[in-house]
């Protein structure tokens, strides 16, 4: 059996299962604050980022890991493994997939790169799905085809916590920011084909939550949802409240709760919360 190393990026926060897997490796995203580069999850944790965003009103940006960073890891892994499978956030939102693929051309070990077209913990659920198929005897191509079908049937809705931060990071135009601030809307962002889209602009948190849970309830009642993920910035209590609501109404659905990493928090702010699920036949 091939010895496979699994590589991903820090936009997904590893759960206990993946953290304990010695064959999983994380390449950190880069967060840039006042011209200084920090590695997400290494020398900058979300808590510190949110503190500085709140107290210092910093302007932060992000960058994908360099090709050299991937190459360095892949060269080290080829000493101990027969193959590398890299699973990354959407290529429509970051150059990480491209950097990983470029590095793959610079090493002798086979490297297969899977573009999830997702972010954060849902990206890691895709990694787990690939692991499952390959562990159960599927070829790399078979596993990729099955997992692509699974990944393409997701729904992800994120309630943006800070228009200020989205504006400062350059993801919101001046006109959008001014209009949003005047109307006090709470934009719900969806991920479709790897891109961010504004699904709707409810006027308050209560209406936004109701809309998100209406969409989730529709999928669950259709019998398509086996598990979901609640994603959050620094609002862990709200995330747990959402989990309780889901567990009480839909006890058959496995609910994960996962924090968003610094590289995502830069753009969305600490009050961000969302939910993601896969519609399975």
List the topology elements.
Elements: E1 4-9, H1 16-19, E2 24-27, E3 30-33, E4 36-39, H2 46-55, E5 60-63, H3 67-77, E6 83-88, H4 96-104, E7 111-115, H5 120-135, H6 140-151, E8 154-159, H7 163-168, H8 174-183, E9 188-192, E10 195-200, H9 205-221, E11 227-232, H10 236-249, E12 254-259, H11 262-268, E13 273-278
Parallel strand pairs: 1-2, 1-6, 6-7, 11-12
Antiparallel strand pairs: 3-4, 3-5, 8-9, 8-13, 9-10, 11-13
Protein name: DegV family protein
InterPro entries: DegV, DegV_C, DegV_domain_contain
Organism: Peribacillus simplex
Question: What do you see in this structure?
Answer:
- It is a single chain.
- This protein is an alpha/beta fold and 281 residues long.
- The protein folds into 2 domains: 4-29 and 64-151, 3-Layer(aba) Sandwich (Rossmann fold); 154-278, Hypothetical Protein Tm841, Chain: A,domain 3.
- The protein has 11 helices and 13 strands.
- It has helices at 16-19, 46-55, 67-77, 96-104, 120-135, 140-151, 163-168, 174-183, 205-221, 236-249, 262-268; strands at 4-9, 24-27, 30-33, 36-39, 60-63, 83-88, 111-115, 154-159, 188-192, 195-200, 227-232, 254-259, 273-278.
- The strands form 3 sheets. A 6-stranded mixed sheet has the order 10-9-8-13-11-12, sandwiched between helices. It has a 4-stranded parallel sheet with strand order 2-1-6-7, with helices on both faces. It has a 3-stranded antiparallel sheet with strand order 4-3-5, with helices on one face.
- Helix 3 (67-77) packs across helix 4 (96-104) and helix 5 (120-135) runs antiparallel to helix 6.
- The protein is globular and about 55 Å long.
- The protein starts with a strand and ends with a strand.
- The model is unreliable at 174-179 (pLDDT under 50).
- It holds the Pfam family DegV.
- Keywords: Lipid-binding.
- InterPro entries: DegV, DegV_C, DegV_domain_contain.
- This is DegV family protein.
- GO terms for molecular function: lipid binding.
């Amino acid at each position: 059996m091939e010895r496979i190393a699994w590589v991903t990026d820090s936009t997904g926060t590893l759960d206990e299962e993946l953290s304990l897997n010695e064959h999983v490796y994380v390449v950190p995203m880069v967060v840039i604050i006042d011209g200084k580069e920090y590695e997400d999850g290494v020398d900058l944790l979300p808590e510190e980022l949110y503190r500085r965003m709140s107290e210092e009103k910093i302007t932060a940006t992000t960058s994908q890991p360099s090709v050299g960073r991937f190459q360095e890891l892949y060269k080290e892994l080829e000493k101990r493994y027969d193959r590398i499978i890299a699973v990354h956030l959407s290529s429509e939102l970051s150059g990480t997939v491209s950097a990983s693929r470029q590095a793959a051309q610079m090493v002798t070990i086979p490297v297969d790169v899977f573009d999830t077209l997702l972010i954060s913990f849902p990206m890691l659920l895709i990694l787990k799905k690939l692991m499952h198929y390959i562990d159960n005897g599927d070829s790399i191509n078979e596993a990729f085809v099955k997992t692509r079908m699974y990944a393409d049937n997701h729904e992800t809705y994120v309630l943006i916590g800070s228009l200020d931060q989205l504006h400062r990071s350059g993801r919101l135009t001046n006109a959008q920011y001014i209009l949003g601030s005047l109307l006090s809307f709470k934009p719900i962002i969806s991920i479709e084909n790897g891109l961010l889209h504004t699904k709707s602009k409810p006027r308050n948190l209560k209406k936004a939550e109701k809309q998100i849970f209406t969409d989730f309830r529709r999928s669950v009642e259709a019998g398509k949802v086996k598990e979901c993920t609640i994603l959050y910035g620094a609002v862990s209590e709200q995330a747990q409240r959402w989990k309780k609501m889901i567990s009480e109404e839909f006890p058959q659905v496995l609910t994960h709760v996962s924090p968003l990493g610094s590289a995502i928090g830069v753009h969305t702010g600490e009050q961000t919360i969302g939910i993601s699920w896969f519609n399975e036949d």
